[in-house]
Amino acid sequence: MKNIKKLILFTIFTCSAAQLFAQKASWIWYPGDLDIYMSNVMQNRRTERGSFFPVFWKMDSHYVLVDFHKEFNLAQSEEVKLFVEGTYNVKIDGQAIAGFPKSIQIPAGKHKLSLKVYNQANVPAIFVQGKTVASDETWLTTFEDKEWIDASGKTSDKSGTTFVSAGSWNLTDPTKLPSQFKLPVVAQSAIKIEKVNNGVISDFGKETFGFIKVHGLKGKGRLSIYYGESKEEALSTDKCETLDYLDINLLQKKDSIMPLSKAFRYVNYQSEGSVSADSVSMLYEYAPVTERGSFKSSDSELNKIYDVAKYTFHLNTREFFIDGIKRDRWVWSGDAYQSYLMNYYSFFDAPTVKRTLLAQRGKDPVTAHINTIMDYSFYWFLGIYDYYKFTGDQKFVQDIYPRMQSLITYIDGRKNKNGLLEWMPGDWIFIDWADKLSKDGEVSFEQLLYARSLETMALCAKLANDTQGAVKYDQQAKVLKAKIFELYWNQQKSALVHSRIDDKQTDNVTRYANMFGIFFDYFTPEQKSAVKENVLLNDKVAKITTPYMRFYELEALCAMGEQPYVLKEMKNYWGGMLKLGATSFWEEYNPDKKGTEHLAMYGRPFGKSLCHAWGASPIYLLGKYYLGVQPTTPGYETYTIEPNLGGLEWMEGIVPTANGDISVYCSKKEIKVSSPTGVGKLKIKSKTKPVVRGVEVKEVSKGIYEVTIEKGKNYSVKYSG
Fold first, then answer.
1. CB–CB of 368/58 below 8 Å?
2. Contact 500, 506 (CB under 8 A)
3. SS3 sequence, 268-293?
4. Which residues contact 278 (CB under 8 A, 6 or more apart)?
5. Residue 12 pLDDT > 60
6. Whole-number pLDDT of residue 147
């Protein structure tokens, strides 16, 4: 490139597919940097009624100067193509090559190829492609610059510079720069158009997301576009949450695409002056994930709930897992944690999990909780624990472990004199959207999440070969768990109380800590039974109205074997939204509300999100607790299948894993299973001993039987349910 005064240099070199893809290469960068950069771009697209609406927390940025290198031992000389986003130098064995080469020749033998890239505006990134030399996550990278010249004049890395594995999203097209990454779009049309008052209402049939395209725009004046998840919102020109204004002066008809994607079902456009438009359509924007998981049963309403849940979840799966498509479109940790779990039973899209975890965490130093919310920091740790459990990806845990250490150190530094956590300036204790929910004092729910996070640290320390850390975090977790039951368990109430104030238990019992204690397996069997009766099935304890916490409440009940009860609750709660015409599931649903009250939240008539990721939890519940599939060792090396019809006549479905899909069919008389991975244990409750041709059936307790499932085989089990 001749103009080297430019701050950024983009090198794009065209060559044949045979040359490019001799060995698969990918764009690489400093790990986490593109995740942080793209999350900043996405989260700062939010607007409310045309005004820019930035996030509530500190935003980090990418490193602007990054070194990439790898050593190769070549059998013969090799030409290597270079694609770089940024201004760069290239070195072979420490010797710089003049200019900004688009290709280099590496001699035969052992050599070290290094590129150092500067880019203030975008993430420094490289794509290196030769016959055997290719950029991927095995390359090492650093943002430090401690390279020095020793007495012999040769470069050395003896300064203690920390090198880490490069980051990658598997972007394998060298002509498409990482900073230009976009989700794909497809054109769609409205299914109904009608004139209302001074506008034209286009109904796209269901909740959707994308860019509005105006056709045949002409004239002088303003075109106003009002978006609505409901028709009422689109018609409310002064209260709808999102809108676009186009001031135009066009003599000839022209099509125009709005610059920002929006959530809507209805679009209301109105003209001022001499402006006219023929129609509007949309470019539907979506994440190109594969729908692998499935569920179908004898209950048609439940099937509809599952399908709408999956659609809701897909809409909220974008570059990252976000909260809702209309309002925030931010990477909230609590929302994302539930998305991870739904993802493992639907798309099994590991890259989006990793991207979201990296984007949430950001950079050191830690100056606040993730999203400023104490419980959201803990969900971040739990997300890593579950990611390893479902995928078995130890490398990611090792890579992210230093960022785990610095966050837990920050949290440890905020304990009070009792060794517990409570509100401090700058904190937001969220828990749930609930009226009259106290956040004062030492809240038991926060301590419970803290204990689980310490257990996660102990596990990840072992994976990262931090023996001392593993011992330390394990001991901290045990001490805190003992303290929780010493300070919060109330024998008379047979439950954990909600909080302590001035070193004394409050009388308040809520569902939160108690239901988490069940599926964390922190309670004794006697305590579990007591909590189920005195808290979870007790109408005197304040009810939960958000899908966010219903997720955990119903999981706790499923873990206690209450699938028939949970089935009724799913049909009442999510089915209740469907009866009101929902085409995706909401941020909050209270069956006591009427009419447009369902659309209001945060003191605004249309403030509620009608497509919220946490509303899609039936995906997870049906996969884990009805089909009954879950890993018992990381990556489904071993797993259990424990079908529970919960009152259904039959059900069938697929649960995806990293190595293929587990298929389950269950009726009251037969169970069919096939799996391509690991070794499974099919657990069956039966009045008589099940029959499986050529396979041993073990009775592990009265009425409970087990069959070992080997990969690649099909099993048909006759039993008496």
1. yes
2. yes
3. EEEECCCCECCEEEEEEECCCCCCCC
4. 215, 216, 253
5. no
6. 57
CB 91 within 8 A of CB 57: no
pLDDT band (50, 70, 90) for residue 146: low
Q: What angle do CA 342, 374, 524 make, to 5 degrees?
A: 65
Token code pair at residue 523: 């309670």
Taking the C-alpha atoms of residue 627 and residue 629, their distance in angstroms, rounded to an integer, is 6
Q: Which residue has the tokens 């999350």?
A: 39
Q: In sequence order, what are the residues at sequence separation of 6 or more whose Cβ sits closer than 8 angstroms to the Cβ of residue 611?
A: 207, 209, 229, 263, 312, 315, 316, 324, 325, 326, 584, 585, 586
* Backbone angle region of 136, left / alpha / beta, with phi > 0 → left and psi within -120 to 50 → alpha: beta
Single out the residue of 595, 497, 511 nearest to residue 554, CA to CA: 511
Handedness of CA 420, 522, 468, 379 (dihedral sign): negative
Query: What per-residue confidence (pLDDT) applies to 23?
Result: 73
Q: Tell the residue number behind the tokens 């004394």, with chain if given.
A: 504
Cβ of 77: how many Cβ atoms within 10 Å? Answer: 10
Q: State the burial class of residue 386 (Cβ atoms within 10 Å of its Cβ: 0-12, 13-18, 19+).
A: middle
Place of tokens 């990658």: 168
Which amino acid is present at 359? A
Q: Are 611 and 264 in contact (CB under 8 A)?
A: no
What residues form DSSP beta bridges with 285?
185
Residues in the chain: 721
Average pLDDT, the chain: 93
CA distances for 492 relative to 38, 418, 438, 489, angstroms: 52, 24, 21, 9
| Distance (Å, whole) CA 86 – CA 121 | 9
Query: Of all residues in the chain, what percent are helix, strand and coil, respectively (each to 5)?
Result: 30, 30, 40
The answer to whether the CB of 455 falls within 8 A of the CB of 439 is no
pLDDT digits (tens, 9 = 90+) for 198-234: 899 999 999 999 999 999 999 999 999 999 999 999 9
Query: How far is Cα 9 from Cα 15, in angstroms, rounded to an integer?
Result: 19
To the nearest whole percent, how much of the chain has pLDDT over 90?
A: 92
Query: What are the backbone angles phi and psi of residue 427, rounded to the nearest 5°?
Result: -90, 150
How far are the Cα atoms of 10, 274, 392, 455 from residue 462, in angstroms, in the given order? Answer: 42, 70, 14, 11
Strand locations in 95-158 (E) = 95-97, 103-106, 109-118, 125-129, 140-142, 148-149, 155-156
Annotate 301-352 with DSSP letters as a single string.
HHHHHHHHHHHHHHHTBSSSB-SBTTTT----HHHHHHHHHHHHTTT--HHH
Q: Which of 290, 295, 296 is nearest to 347 (CA)?
A: 290
- Contact between 227 and 258 under an 8 Å Cβ cutoff? The reply is no
First to last CA, the chain: 73
Residue 462's pLDDT band (cuts 50, 70, 90): very high
> 178 preceded by cis ω (within 30°)?
no
Outline where 345-443 has alpha helix (H). 350-361, 374-391, 394-412
What's at 558, amino acid-wise?
A: C
**Which 8-state DSSP code applies to residue 1?**
-
Place of tokens 């299973």: 673
d(CA 313, CA 612) in angstroms, rounded, equals 8
